[in-house]
Amino acid sequence: MNQQMAPVAFFIFKRPQLTARVFEAIRAARPRHLLIVADGPQPTSRDEVELCRETRKIVSSPDWPCELLTNFSQENMGCRRRISSGLDWVFNHFPEAIILEDDCLPVPSFFSFCTTLLDQYRDDTRVMSISGANFQLGHTRGTASYYFSSYTHIWGWATWRRAWSQTDVSFASWPAAREEGWLSSVLDDDPLSVEFWTEKFDDVYAGNNDTWDYQWLFTCWSQSGLTAVANQNLVTNIGVGADATHTKFDSSQLGLPSYELDECIHPKTIFRDRKADRFLWEEHILPEIMRRRKNQSWLRKARRALAKRKRIERLLQWRELKQMLNH
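Above: the chain's sequence. Below: its structure in token form.
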């Protein structure tokens, strides 16, 4: 008997071309239940009004037998409120779901991979999410079709109501966790990792980063939860560009090629693959930190040079003025 695909939740905004490409992949998979979550346009932008309308039109008339549910916002809610409230809405309807955004293009086997693992770990609270995004650059972890990570890769993923319901998008518990030095225990007492994630979480808590995924990561860490990550990349992020919310510039994780998964072999044990997580840190996160620090160093040098030049200019002006007065 064929396995019934899990419900698919598709999050869209104002990028019709990308939406059409991802929707075609969903169309090929033919899910029985399709939930569309859309953010609204900025009220002052006529272009966004039209782009949102065009984007919604693409997904509003599926040509295969399915239950279509839509949650279209009339106002612009922003990433944090729209994604989090959209996920709340999805899990009010279904106990589990596959989740895609408009820039996450999956291969066909992504859907069966997520469906299989949603069933496999439905009642296992150690596992909090499933991801088709793999950033190991060809390195296979173990002999199974997936491994377990402490990182929540959300470029094509799936989870359960039981896991998402623990998320507090307001991040109310972060200050207490920060003061207790909780991150040190999570990050193996690595001071640079602690510094990096403290800065990220501080920005989110202060409202400087309009996002929801750091709160989700924090939730999984606070519950010692694991993410089952496909051992080869099943989803390519195609969304880099000026119209993206967070991926406006290229990075080592964008545009990675994707591959089909022939069969799903389950690992015999459930434990975090520390080697894989370390690779992710060293190959993708740490270089970003070093580039940023280098840029900050360059900026400090530039500012010092500018201040020195201004001091010299003032000194020259004073000498010229003094010479004029002496004459």
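The longest helix spans residues 274-326.
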